[in-house]
Amino acid sequence: MENKPPDYQDELRAENALIRLKLEQEFGMQHTSEPMSDPKAENQWLRHIYNIESAIKTKRTISVYNLIGRPDFKHPIDLEPQEVEEELNRVLQLLKDQKIIVDTICEYEPIEVYRFIVDDLFPYETNDMPYSGTVTWFIYEEFYPNYEYDIENDCGDFVNHIFGNWSDYFFNIIVADEVLYNNKKFSKTEIEGILKVYAEAHLHIEIEEFTNVQISFDFETEQGSYSAQFWGYDSINKTECKASIHFGLEFDDNMWVINSIEFPDFDLGGDALDP
Length: 275
What we know:
Blueprint lengths: L7 H20 L11 H20 L2 E3 H4 L16 H14 L2 E4 L6 H12 L3 E3 L8 E4 H4 L3 H16 L5 H7 E7 L2 E4 H14 L3 E14 L4 E12 L4 E14 L2 E8 L13
Helix pairs in contact: 1-2, 4-5
């Protein structure tokens, strides 16, 4: 009677146990889940994790240009206007083929996106993990922050945040440690209490749009401002309402935060904000 060949699944389970042990000893990973019912699928998953952790630990890096195979390309100044779209799409596809995605939050001219890829991303050193299967995202604004866009959106969100969408997390991010209100200084904790009371009293206000938005900022003084008029609907009085707002800003930890608040012209069918 001839011997039966070793059970393939048993071999996989033994190998999986070994990889789990290596992940724990080499990378400190703790395994709290039970082994998968399919040892082959688990083996593929564990090998995938091990390759990623190994690449991170050894910190192998490679330039984006080398990663995509050092393709021929034209410098932005050498492109004719009619060539830009085609060349940009070609380069974006080469990047996508290597699981690299380039995106923008705001809209920019195609030539600027192409310049960003060629001048900033091609020499950029990224993790060299050829077997990880992970996707790398590059956002234009992470290299070139659009502070005007950020200020307009953050301040607009802050007004909406006061009128019915309160979030402690957002408040702590967007508000400075000390805030000037009605010519008086308040700590972040104090102004939070004032605004929460006001927010509770004005849940019936629904913001519809912002108009006359004006933004300014100066990196030398690290001071800025946001002012606008917003229109909304008062669901109690069944009327349209409006208010002029003004926020002072200061630059802190690479973002603009609110350090003064003015609501001078409330016409909301309710009492003015009063600390």
